[in-house]
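Meet my pick.
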Amino acid sequence: MATVLSMRQIEKRFGVVKALDGVNFELEAGEIHALLGVNGAGKSTLIKILSGVYAKDSGTIEIGGAPVELGSPAAAIAHGIASVQQHPELVNDFTGVENIFLGEEAGKPGLGGRIDRKAMRLAAQKLLKRFPIEIDLDRRVGEMPAVDREIVAVLHALRREDIRILILDEPTSTLTEREKASLFQLMRSLKAAGIAIIYITHRLEEVFEIADRFTVFRGGRNVATFTSRAALESGVSIPELMLDEKTGDIFPPRTGEAGGEVMMEVRGLEKKGLFSDVSFTLRRGEILGIFGLVGSGVDELSKALFGVIRPDGGEIEIQGKPAILKDPHDALKRGIFLVPGDRRTEGLTLSKDVVFNTTLAHLGKASWIGGFLRFGRNRKAAEELARRVALQPPKLDRPVSAFSGGNQQKIVIAKGLYRDSQIYIFVEPTVGVDIGARATLYALMRELSKKAGVLVISSDCDEVHGVADRTIALYKGRPIAHADAAPSRDQLLAAGIMGVRS
């Protein structure tokens, strides 16, 4: 296969920090090449250089054998490089067709140009003929499932016929298994058309499912490149390459404690059309896990437990006392803290720095009498929490929008730790978080469970089964009971994806 991209001895510094140290990377036409590494390993910096967002300090880049300079995103696109970010910026009120050609709607340039809807529709049909995938592009994006929004973002990136390299950043982080299969179908179509794909993911099991090769980054260097088949046959451990150490089990050992104080009791909780007959007991000293796919009602259940959604029926008790949670403020007063699944819209103020976001969870604690902020104390608290969640880089004055998705998740969790609550509800706690940081966060959850009730709600079955002492599966809004309080991983998976009772 022909080499479409060659990057040699790429270096990049940010002050005293050497983000890339003599990196070599090659990409072949028509291959899917996974880029792996913990947060801060250098892979995002390399991609931003390739996308024209950052300028390299030294090194050479060749595309199709010809040297190029990628000084801007426009230059990268002109050389056939397109990117789809982890959170694609789409216009919800526009259709799929309108989003694909956003910014290029007019039949001719200038203020006098009119939107040529017929030309847009014909061009969209041509795209779907070139890359066959089932999708209704006349539907408003805001009404589309997550996978269709991702596909629209990909088609937007490929609207030019001369795109040869496509960068996909964590495209499956919010997709169900069925939706992931649809996206992988599109990726294989792109591959068959000769487009090379750089695929960034923290879901290591996907590497062997979709990637032809993978490259591991660590400490600003690419430390290994393997074909997926060779790595599988020789038993290569990707986590050990990423961390440069034996990983063992990333989940902390279960305490074996049972019968602790009941922190929350839920009986027959129901919200029509979303979930029904949900009952469980959450105790101090253990972690309770709820597994459910996207659309199963798990997200809505978490919001009902935090006062965002008012249930239609059922009861909630907090430490033995009936609780009617009218709103999140009421939930916070009752000692409940929610770490939301959508960190960007529900968990963070992206334009503000780490100290602001961390202490925002408890303004009473962060302020003197009279409402003046305790700047020195707040910074010390934020420094300690950044250390506990392994924030990288630990730059407290940086706006959280400048951090990677995984590090943004750490900041949300640090915000919860600052609140020092009695009940913690973690929703999709490690989406976009690398394997090394996951171990740190799971250990924090176990530590919290010693003094608080910890509920982990996730669409990742391995996560729920690995971190929790007891588990429940939610299937189409209804809990699936198990005879055994600790079902096997396969039993939990079958319950969550098929509604099978064991």
